């Protein structure tokens, strides 16, 4: 059982500090909303100040959720949901059975709906907190008035979100800059090794960020679409550098210099886009010098590999120039263009959300299991809050609402951070209340300072955020009930107990990502299979290229890879044993498959506008590749061995077919000859890695891969470490080159 992984994860999370994530402008806006709510509560005497401040405070938190656009609709939604929670809590009152029933149903609904996004999850947690605090909020008023006050707090924060300073399309520009930075790191990594992880997540995040907006400047959309063409060009140059490594190390080093200068250029563009400054013009001169010193595609003396490397470098240069033009247009700014009508946009988004919820309505869904687990834990902690002595046992369900997350790693780390931070905050709030409890002006200043620090610390450190929030709440309570030490220690104990209960009760219905890895990996392989079929079909018949189908396949592969990456990160810290595969095993397999995807991306980019001539022999090879992907996906999903497809024979037949053709197709035939080697090697290595998963059951008669003759006890610790993988690569590298005619 893995124990060190969760321990390291909790330690990193507890002491994590991310000052680059601080959002001072939004923090000051949210704090302004708190100040406005306090002023409004003083001016309107019947207005319940506690409910108003709770609505404003909680709605302000939604404006600082990482990677979520701070828009007024979020605090409005939060205020409305909190108002409903306050009204439901008032209806349940202090009756134990009614309170437990309402809390259980509310937890089931909020946890399930919260699976849609991080912003919705944040609002759902706040609604749970409001439900717990509702009986105390309606003591001096009716439930309807208190609910209205909470909604008013959300309205105030929505208005505060519109305050200056304004930065037009700032999230989109920052997302585009993040993609440039990731492509720069990838280009610099390819200058050293071809096994550098393929950048996908930031590109997917950029697409998602732009997809949230109905009106976005056209240069931003064009710059985002250009990212994938640029990535393909970088991959092609990286592959060319790897091929030159053995034949001509000097040319390989010069090609690597082009990749490094490309990385410098992308970082320059990223800084300009993020700060909305003009792009310096010296990047073009520096890159041109590296390109002129690199391999050429215009000399008849150099080898074919030099010629192809020169072609790919020129293609990268053209792609960089297009990227720079789009980036310059982004920095200049411009009017937003309507891409789709608001009515269609709202309908499509609502339809997508409903489809997501419907798909999650099954026992195997992590969202459904999390909702059931949350309902059970909230029911238990709410019942215990009535059984325990004292008047502050409600902090048991209150802490459980804040701690619970869908995965084990987030629940444990968030639970420990929340527990320790709240305990320290209770002591801090109690100590501060001793000094300023009889000074109303100083008390208002302390509340404002607590709010500002909490909003600033939320994206930087959750431990500090929990500390300040607890101090804020305790200080407010102590202003009404002057029992700082008694209340502080009782609340600290119940908070600590609630955090431990939430973590311990997670084992009731655990959602282990490790057990989901085979299915997620198989889904990704199926997505790669669809993409490979389209790419090979387009190579065989370029005139029948369907951009819509290709984009759909690419989007599906991106989503599947994003889901798998998130599950691998969560599984890496789970204290779970049992049969393989584990997270490291799936990482190895995903890395092997990634090399094949690189080859397919290069093949896709090899079909240029104007190519119409068909190529013979590709359909048979595509059929073999499709069968290999299908067999591998089924083997990964079920664990049942499937005979390997004879890819070597299919590759030899493809070589024979590519050996003859017109001069117009020579470039495509040469590219297919090289990239098909990498694709087949990737699939063969993937089968070796899956075979390694089943080494513990060697006595069941399952045959080992036909490529593995020296399996021994070495295993595959990382991609390429096994001697069979290296031998296969050497075998591919020494195959006869394609004829020039």
From TrEMBL:
Is Ribosomal protein a UniProt keyword of this protein?
no
Which stretches are transmembrane? Answer: 74-94, 106-132, 144-163, 371-388, 424-456, 462-481, 493-509
Q: What keywords appear on the UniProt entry?
A: Membrane, Transmembrane, Transmembrane helix
Where in this chain does the entry annotate a coiled-coil region? none
What membrane topology was assigned to this protein in its record?
A: Multi-pass membrane protein
Looking up Pfam families in the UniProt record yields: FUSC_2
- Name all Integral membrane bound transporter domain ranges: 381-503
A cellular component term from Gene Ontology for this protein is:
membrane
Q: What is the first-listed, main subcellular location in coarse terms?
A: membrane
Which InterPro entries did the record assign?
Answer: Memb_transporter_dom (IPR049453)
| Lineage top rank: taxon | Bacteria
Q: Which cell locations does it reside in?
A: Membrane
List the protein's name.
Answer: Putative membrane protein YccC
Species the sequence originates in: Stackebrandtia endophytica
């Amino acid at each position: 059982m893995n124990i060190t992984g969760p321990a390291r994860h909790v330690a990193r999370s507890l002491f994590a500090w991310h000052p680059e994530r601080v959002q001072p402008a939004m923090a000051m806006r949210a704090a302004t909303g708190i100040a406005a709510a306090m002023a409004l509560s003083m001016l309107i005497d019947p207005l319940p100040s506690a409910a108003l401040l709770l609505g404003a405070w909680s709605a302000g938190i939604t404006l600082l959720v990482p990677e979520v656009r701070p828009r007024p609709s979020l605090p409005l939604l939060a205020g409305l949901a909190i108002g409903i929670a306050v009204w439901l809590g008032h209806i349940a009152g202090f009756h134990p059975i009614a309170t437990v029933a309402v809390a259980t149903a509310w937890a089931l609904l909020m946890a399930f709906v919260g699976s849609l996004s991080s912003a919705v999850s944040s609002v759902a947690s706040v609604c749970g907190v409001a439900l717990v605090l509702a009986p105390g909020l309606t003591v001096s008023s009716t439930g309807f008035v208190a609910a209205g006050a909470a909604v008013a707090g959300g309205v105030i924060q929505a208005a505060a979100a519109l305050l200056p300073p304004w930065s037009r399309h700032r999230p989109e520009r920052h997302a585009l800059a993040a993609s440039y930075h990731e492509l720069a790191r990838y280009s610099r990594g390819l200058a050293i090794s071809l096994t550098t992880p393929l950048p996908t997540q930031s590109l997917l995040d950029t697409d998602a960020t732009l997809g949230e907006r109905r009106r976005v400047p056209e240069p931003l959309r064009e710059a985002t679409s250009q990212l994938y063409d640029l990535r393909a060009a970088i991959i092609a140059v990286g592959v060319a550098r790897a091929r030159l490594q053995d034949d001509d190390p000097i040319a390989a080093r010069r090609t690597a210099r082009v990749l490094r200068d490309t990385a410098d250029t992308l970082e320059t563009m990223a800084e300009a886009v993020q700060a909305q400054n003009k792009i310096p013009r010296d990047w073009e001169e520096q890159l041109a010098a590296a390109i002129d010193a690199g391999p050429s595609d215009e000399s008849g003396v150099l080898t074919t590999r030099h010629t192809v490397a020169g072609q790919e470098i020129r293609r990268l240069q053209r792609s960089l120039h297009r990227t720079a033009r789009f980036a310059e247009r982004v920095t200049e700014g411009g009017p937003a263009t309507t891409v789709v009508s608001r009515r269609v946009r709202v309908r499509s988004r609502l339809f997508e959300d409903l489809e997501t919820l419907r798909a999650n309505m099954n026992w195997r869904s992590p969202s459904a299991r999390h909702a059931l687990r949350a309902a059970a834990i909230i029911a238990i902690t709410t019942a215990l809050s009535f059984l325990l002595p004292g008047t502050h046992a409600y902090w048991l369900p209150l802490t459980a609402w804040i701690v619970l997350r869908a995965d084990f790693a987030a629940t444990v780390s968030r639970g420990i951070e929340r527990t320790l931070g709240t305990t320290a905050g209770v002591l801090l709030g109690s100590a501060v209340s001793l000094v300023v409890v009889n000074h109303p002006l100083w008390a208002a200043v302390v509340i404002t300072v607590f709010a500002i620090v909490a909003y600033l610390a939320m994206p930087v450190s959750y431990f500090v955020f929990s500390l300040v929030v607890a101090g804020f709440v305790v200080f407010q309570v102590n202003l009404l009930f002057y029992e700082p030490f008694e209340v502080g220690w009782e609340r600290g104990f119940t908070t600590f107990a609630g955090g431990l209960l939430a973590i311990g009760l997670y084992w009731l219905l655990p959602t282990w990502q490790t057990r989901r890895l085979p299915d997620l990996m198989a889904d990704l392989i199926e997505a790669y299979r669809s993409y490979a079929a389209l790419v090979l079909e387009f190579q065989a018949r370029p005139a029948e290229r369907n951009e819509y189908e290709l984009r759909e396949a690419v989007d599906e592969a991106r989503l599947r890879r994003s889901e798998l990456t998130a599950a691998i990160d969560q599984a890496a810290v789970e204290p779970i044993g049992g049969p393989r595969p584990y997270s490291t095993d799936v990482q190895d397999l995903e890395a092997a498959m990634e090399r094949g995807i690189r080859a397919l991306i290069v093949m896709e980019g090899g079909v240029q506008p104007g190519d119409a001539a068909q190529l013979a022999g590709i359909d048979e090879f595509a059929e073999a590749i499709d069968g290999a992907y299908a067999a591998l996906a089924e083997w990964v999903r079920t664990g049942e061995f499937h005979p390997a497809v004879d890819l070597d024979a299919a590759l030899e037949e493809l070589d024979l077919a590519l050996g003859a053709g017109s001069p117009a197709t020579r470039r495509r035939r040469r590219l297919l000859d090289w990239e098909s080697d990498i694709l087949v090697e990737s699939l063969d290595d993937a089968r070796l890695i899956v075979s390694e998963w089943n080494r513990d059951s060697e006595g069941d008669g399952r045959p080992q891969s036909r490529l593995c003759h020296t399996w021994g006890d070495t295993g595959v610790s990382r991609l390429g470490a096994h001697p069979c993988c290296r031998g296969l690569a050497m075998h591919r590298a020494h195959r006869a080159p394609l004829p020039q005619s």
